Amino acid sequence: MSDQQREAMEYDVVIIGAGPSGLSAAIRLKQLAAENNRDVSVCILEKGSEVGAHILSGAVIDPIGLNELIPDWKEKGAPLNTPVKEDRIYMLGKSWSFKIPNFTMPGLMSNHGAYAVSLGNVCRWLAEQAEAMEVEIYPGFAASELVYRDDGSVKGVVAGVMGLDREGKPKPEYEPGIELHGKYVFIAEGVRGSLAKIIIDKFDLSKDREPQKFGLGIKELWEIKPENHKQGQVTHTMGWPLDGKTGGGSFMYHLENNQLAIGFVVHLNYKNPYMSPYEEFQRFKHHPLVIDTLKGGRRVAYGARAISEGGFQSVPKLSFPGGALLGCSAGFMNLPRIKGSHNAVKSGMLAAEAAFEALQAGREGDELTAYQTLYENSWIYKDLKKVRNVKPLWSKLGIYGGLAMGGLDMWLNDLFGFSLFGTLKHGKPDSETLELASNCTPIDYPKPDGVISFDRLTNVSFSATNHEEDQPVHLKLKDSSIPISQNLPQYDEPAQRYCPAGVYEVLRDDKGAEPVFQINAQNCVHCKTCDIKDPASNITWCVPQGGEGPNYPNM
């Protein structure tokens, strides 16, 4: 379908993604418009079936950004109902746990004043605030393609393409979608967004930056027995079941209504191709520190999502001709704090302020260079700079050396504003860190018991994931031969294990036929791990039809 055959809608600002950064940008634009008696048209496109459907986070949030955006959020009923009352960090062995004294941790690691929340519900509330200000929000509209001006700047997106069959041919119900044009386009898709990836490459936004680094976060929401529930208790762990060289850890957050958010993060620069982050999470739940809390409870939801871990060194240039990168599309997560939503909110505000200034001056389609300057003078920049060496130190020194040196570095940065190490580099992207399977030991994971631990496909059913099967596969292989000809002999095709939803299988029969690589795209929970970790960088995650994927409740 050619561009001329699509309808187009015009806005001042088009925002891709109804997460914390995109919603905050829209709200701030409308605030500035009201303060200056100007009408600014703002549209948000959300690929999930509703706002919050694709939002997954721990989450303990620092309200510093929300305090600036909507100072009276408590009076307006924001769903921040569980202040952190107890903050615990443990080092785990297989059958033991050691509580790290809180006084040994730098002040920036404290969760005092933070809230344990459902980030999906926070975004639903933010959407209500935005719509009350006449922001147009369109859930179920996946932005699948960028539209450019004649000068090469980003003009808008194509969204709402529906009704293609598996071969990409129109079915009777085919809808070509519409073009949404903006004087500026904000990319707020979250980690490893499909459009952000294109823009970063096209405009070389990562030039002179370190490669972005990632982790995979896997989460379950449980309803636990009242006697096991300790509302406001926050627990993080490091160590077992991961080995000393593999980065990662767990979280357990006691929310309201006897709910427990429990999850596990594995840094995606791990080396052993036999590792399964999902299975590591399942066996973690059997640790003595954890299992007694879960006994007698029931899991009510499941999901997974990649998180950005590169931090300060990996943040790309934030503006490009016609728009800006916001939130996790730019990688604003503070890794040791496991927090990014406060920075996402602030980044949306800063981008909005830069765009509003440009609109006031009658500009459009140029680079919002003021956004970069605002970022470099903001508390986001300071927040990320203080912890910039934690990830590379952990990667180089392992858990114990990394914990000691990373802690020292954070103390020095927090107290005196300097580091003994300068700014360390990350090195390889995560797709290049696997060792050959022949040099690694397979991991014998215990079978799930169906009570505390579960198999992947059973858990995927608790994500309410749905994709129509007769549509183009949204997980695209650049070379369909690589999984069997290259990844299988070299790495025992790690996609079978790194995917937390059982999307990828290597099928073998007992007749000696060539193995077949199968993609079960309907299982995909949109975590983006395959786009990050595939050793041949052969898998590209694209948006499926709008509204499809997981439907997370309270995640």
Query: What does the radius of gyration come to?
Result: 23 Å
Helix content: 25-40%
Q: State the CATH topology of the largest domain.
A: FAD/NAD(P)-binding domain
Count of separate structural domains = 3
**Mean pLDDT rating:** 96
Main sheet record: 8 strands, mixed
CATH architecture descriptor of the largest domain: 3-Layer(bba) Sandwich
Which keywords apply here?
single chain, 555 residues, alpha+beta, FAD/NAD(P)-binding domain, D-Amino Acid Oxidase, Chain A, domain 2, 3 domains, 8-stranded mixed sheet, 7-stranded mixed sheet, 14 helices, 24 strands
Topology of helices and strands:
Blueprint: E1 7-16, H1 20-35, E2 42-46, E3 60-61, H2 64-69, E4 82-83, E5 86-92, E6 97-99, E7 115-116, H3 119-132, E8 136-139, E9 143-148, E10 154-159, E11 162-164, E12 170-175, E13 178-187, H4 194-202, E14 214-223, E15 233-239, E16 248-254, E17 259-267, H5 277-284, H6 288-294, E18 298-308, E19 319-320, E20 323-325, H7 341-360, H8 369-376, H9 379-386, H10 390-416, H11 456-460, E21 475-477, H12 482-491, H13 495-498, E22 504-507, E23 516-519, H14 529-533, E24 539-541
Parallel strand pairs: 1-2, 1-13, 2-8, 5-15, 13-20
Antiparallel strand pairs: 3-7, 4-7, 5-6, 9-10, 10-13, 11-12, 14-17, 14-18, 15-16, 16-17, 19-20, 21-24, 22-23
Helix pairs in contact: 1-3, 1-7, 7-8
